[in-house]
Specification:
Helix content: 25-40%
Number of helices: 15
Membrane topology: Multi-pass membrane protein
Catalytic activity: estrone 3-sulfate + H2O = estrone + sulfate + H(+); dehydroepiandrosterone 3-sulfate + H2O = 3beta-hydroxyandrost-5-en-17-one + sulfate + H(+)
Subcellular location: Microsome membrane
Shape: globular
EC number: 3.1.6.2
Number of strands: 19
Oligomer: single chain
Strand content: 15-25%
GO molecular function: arylsulfatase activity; metal ion binding; steryl-sulfatase activity
Radius of gyration: 25 Å
Length: 576
């Protein structure tokens, strides 16, 4: 009996009324906000918005202060998050400025089926896997129903959510977001072309000279054809892009944006209830805090930061509901919870005349600004009560790409050996067994263009950052692009030779560029980083570009559709 008791004490830990084996695999809950600024949370220094539940998560877990997205916009960042690889390796990086994200559900580009996601790895290890909320990694390739890039084709057993995500266009009365400037130009061009037939009639009616009726009719036909060619897509963005799916079936088209987030929370809580006997992986990809900022009654006007602050506080409340469900089911101690954002807050977001985007703290730039710190530095919080020490703060460089190898380690997965994995297992760092991050160099892309490089010098605490390319702000002198709505990756950019060099460890705001005159190591640091860039580029294998102009174009034959036959799509099959 004494031997048995000793064996039990070694093999089991009694926590919260439950026996949990030391070797048991945890449940995993991943919480990702959409366009949340690193400065929007109380635990990261915000005093104008109340986020008690996320702050509690940080106080009970480990908080990362130099946590980095692999891209400053949604699609490539999320591709890197799921695969542990720079998006340029999977083809999920754009060669042009217009299509930096998946723009249309009726497009043909998406996360390739040969990519290995952490969901696919854990699914093979017996996890029940679900994603609820935003996907934004494509849908179909060749036909409307092939769903080649659907979440269920990438390791998830269950999907409920918006396959693209919330857009400004999803609000019935909101200001358009998708290609706003282009749409204005198309309207103006259409108006000009529409006047052409009438102008051609003037000489005939004034009896100056006769204009052939065939020319008048042809000009009218061309004007109508031009209008229909673009209005068939841009005129129906809400109907084409704003839909809710359950697995492969559309349940709302267009989505009721005011109800969407509540439906996502309902499904997340139901998923936890269904699979509480575990192990399970839940990826709750919030629609918050992207425009049009649909916020329910109790939270409207609640914050000190307007509609955006209200939306952040509702997001925090939803996080609290998930944590409460884990507490209620007595799963807290055996569940690894992670919270982050896909990229920095969007500085150009507007709702009418009000700012509708996040705050990125002291960091320059935001969503869409290439390698500027405010676009890629995001919150990072891990909580696992029986494993991770509460209240720890880690200032080492870490990446969203680290989730794949980290989850592989804790869930018993096997990392693919036939490809480069850029992420690193964070568990030794999170547990305090090592003090330094495994990342020596991190590369910050804007589309397929390398904008900046970060070097974590191993023999000291210095983190250097070199910018080879920076975007042009508009108006001049700001680190955002209010004119175009999103900054360019190429073309309207500044190339720096020599590169702009900053010591991020002492100057996180990137406000004091270094030179050979004020930094003795200037040439040596740039030389070391140039060598790292050459080695990194040599490791990139050419792959098909999923966000090419052709793939990104709206294709009627790929457009998801419910209810009547295309193009008369529309349905609402979801209960309140």
């Amino acid at each position: 009996h004494r031997t048995l008791r000793l064996w039990l004490s070694v093999c089991f830990t009694f926590t919260g009324g439950e026996f949990v084996t030391r070797n048991s695999r945890p449940n995993i809950v991943l919480l990702m906000a959409d366009d949340l600024g690193v400065g929007d949370l109380g635990c990261y220094g915000n005093t104008s918005v109340s986020t008690p539940n996320i702050d509690r998560l940080a106080s009970e877990g480990v908080m990362l202060t130099q946590h980095l997205a692999a891209a400053s916009v949604c699609t490539p960042s999320r591709a890197a998050f799921l695969t542990g690889r720079y998006p340029v390796r999977s083809g999920m990086a754009s060669p042009n400025n217009m299509y930096r994200d998946v723009t249309w559900l009726g497009g043909s580009g998406g996360l390739p089926s040969n990519e290995t996601t952490f969901a696919k790895m854990l699914q093979h290890r017996g996890y029940r896997t679900g994603i609820i909320g935003k996907w934004h990694l494509g849908m179909s390739c060749a036909s409307r129903g092939d769903h080649c890039a659907h979440p269920l084709n990438h390791g998830f057993n269950f999907f409920y959510g918006m396959p693209l995500g919330l857009l400004g266009d999803c609000g019935a009365s909101s200001w358009p977001e998708v290609h706003r400037r282009l749409r204005i130009q198309l309207w103006v061009t259409s108006a000009v072309l529409a006047t052409l037939p009438f102008l051609l009639l003037v000489p005939r009616l004034a009896r100056w000279f006769s204009v052939p009726w065939t020319l008048v009719a042809a000009s009218g036909f061309l004007a109508a054809l031009f209008f229909l060619s673009w209005f068939s897509s841009y005129g129906f963005v809400r109907r084409w892009n704003c839909i809710i799916m359950r697995d492969h079936d559309i349940v709302q088209q267009p989505a009721e944006e005011a109800r969407a987030s509540g439906l996502m929370l309902r499904e997340a809580l139901a998923f936890i209830d269904r699979h509480k006997r575990g192990p399970f992986l839940l990826f709750l990809s919030f629609l918050h805090v992207h425009t049009p900022l649909p916020t329910r009654g109790n939270f409207v006007g609640r914050s000190k930061f307007g509609a955006y602050g209200d939306n952040v506080e509702e997001l925090d409340w939803m996080v609290g509901k998930v944590l409460a469900a884990l507490d209620r089911e007595r799963l807290t101690n055996q569940t690894l919870v992670y919270f982050t954002s896909d990229n920095g807050g969007r500085l150009e977001a507007r709702e009418g005349s009000a700012h509708a985007g996040g705050w990125n703290g002291v960091y320059r730039g935001g969503s869409g600004t290439g390698g500027l710190e405010g676009g890629v530095r995001v919150p990072g919080i891990f909580r696992w009560p029986t494993v991770l020490e509460a209240g720890r703060v880690i200032e080492e460089p870490t990446s969203l790409m680290d989730l794949l190898p980290t989850l592989s380690h804790v869930g018993g997965g096997i990392l693919p050996q036939d490809r480069v994995i850029d992420g690193r297992n964070l568990m030794p760092l999170l547990e305090g067994r090592v003090q330094r991050s495994d990342h020596e160099f991190l590369f910050h892309y804007c589309g397929i263009f390398l904008h900046s490089v970060r070097w974590h010098q191993r023999d000291c605490n210095t983190v250097w950052k070199a910018h080879y390319i920076t975007p042009h702000g508009s108006p001049e002198g700001v680190d955002a692009c209010h004119g175009s709505g999103v900054c360019a990756c190429s073309g309207d950019v500044t190339h720096h030779d020599p590169p702009l060099l900053f010591d991020i460890s002492r100057d996180p705001a990137e406000s004091r560029p270094l030179s050979s005159e004020n930094e003795a190591l200037f040439e040596a640091v740039l030389s070391k980083m140039a060598a790292a860039v050459r080695e990194h580029r040599a490791s990139i294998t050419p792959v098909p570009l999923q966000l090419s102009a052709f793939n990104a174009l709206w294709k009627p034959w790929l457009q998801p559709c419910c209810g009547a036959a295309f193009p008369f799509c529309g349905c609402s099959r979801e209960d309140a």
